[in-house]
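Working notes for the structural subgroup meeting. M.R. asked for a predicted model of this chain before we commit to crystallization trials. I am recording the input and output together here so anyone reviewing the notebook later can reproduce the run.

Input as submitted:
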Amino acid sequence: MKTYGAGAAILLTVGAMLGLVAATPPVPRALAQPAGSIYQATVITTGSDTRFRNAGFAQALREVLVKASGEPRLAKDSRVDALVPQAERLVAFFSYRDQMEGIHHHDDQGTYDRPFELTVQFDWLSINAALARLEEKPWLGERPTLVPVILVRGHERPFDQTYLISDEESAASAQRDSLSYCAQKYGLGLRVPSPADLTVWNIRPSEIPRPSASLATNKFLVVGTLDFRLRTFGWVGVWKATWRGIDYDWGISGVSFDRAFDNLVAGVARIASGHGRPD
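Returned structure, recorded in token form:
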């Protein structure tokens, strides 16, 4: 059974909440940035110069507002548009990593147009103040670990395989990576079941998952199916969960499996953070 964490902390000294509230006294270094990575995001930019940096900051800001609050709807909230021009002022630290490091630069274009990972750590006080302006608040405390029990079914070529996602299923390698990325994006942990777990829970690839496993209270169990269908121009995801005694179901159709898993994890974040039913 593999467990994926939500990321490592970066402790930084920050000053005032620029542009959002009046300046505050210096904060002791040990208290400056809370543990965890909910105020940090990594996005892909073209090059590491200033031409694309502000666009990267803006994308990272939207992701952090969602992650810090647990409200996926903020990603498309028009009110966030007013905050985007201030994104650079809310940054505490940023760094780049060349995705093509080690590959020789053949010309000047190769220097500027290579893909880079831009990791942005925002000032947590500033983000909390921005959330307050959006009538939101940070999602604090222990967050649940997502446990997905997903039956993948291919009904036609080019994808005609059927299997359960587990930490050992070779066909699910890319899907495990996608789930891990989505879990980190929304600030959740991820526990991919092992074949032994699925056996204990009486889950078989010939049936739609209906686990009755008793998990720890901080584990968020989601069962569902992911079907590939040409007539929907992609994948169809159907998800079900019970959280705090309430049943939820949601899904998405005609998308890549990356987008389907984003829909799954966004729904979990919305439910667990107390924002209500998924879209």
